[in-house]
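Quick question, first post here. What does this chain look like in 3D?
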Amino acid sequence: MPRMPIVDVTSLDTIDETLTQAGLPVGRPVVVVVGGAGGLATDPNGTLARLLRQHIVPLVQRLDATVVDGGTDAGVMRIMGDARATVGATFPLIGVAARGTVLVPGEPAPKSDAAPLEPGHSTIILVPGEEWGDESAWIAAVATTLAQGYGSVTVLINGGSIAYTDVLHSLAVGRPVVVLAGTGRTADEIADAAEAPNNAAANQIRQSPLTTVISMAAPTQIAAAIHAGIDGAPNQRSSAF
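> Answer (accepted):
Ran it through. Tokens below.
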């Protein structure tokens, strides 16, 4: 497999110019996928993999949209890369990762637990950072830049503590969030937030008018919510959370 293009972005002030100069697809709908990495099983025949292959990936292809995620070869990002390849979809799949957390081909490992990049992504954007979660604000900013006024939506699948930050960044720029209940951990904590009043982040997200919670057992409704989010929410050029 040819080496995927890697784009370095070093400043939020120049992100528009950098992505445009790199030839990335600016001015089309964007679906941001956040959630489980190491804590999510990646069975290619599992329910989640089939949901992506049969419903979400075909929808993205039909809408001529771009998918933005964390870009590493783990969890939901691996499932997305596999689903796109299996279906033969051609939409841009763009990973955004902090440089100090991933293994870049031809470069020394920045740390012992650095993650490999998912090979099915069409482009990887490397941003400043040494710790997991440093990429969160950049994922939101990249999605806003790529959409350029077109609609965008964030889909939360499973997720750990960083997923809360990812979702809050999306809400802060007015991006609708679709939470897939039944996928575990953060997604389920948000879905059941009323039962955990001390979880401030889960309740903030659950109570936002931009948040929609749908069971992963209802794939048609999930696809409809993603489509509705894109149709009804143009990006807002405001600062990240």
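The mean pLDDT is 91.
DSSP finds eight helices and ten strands in the chain.
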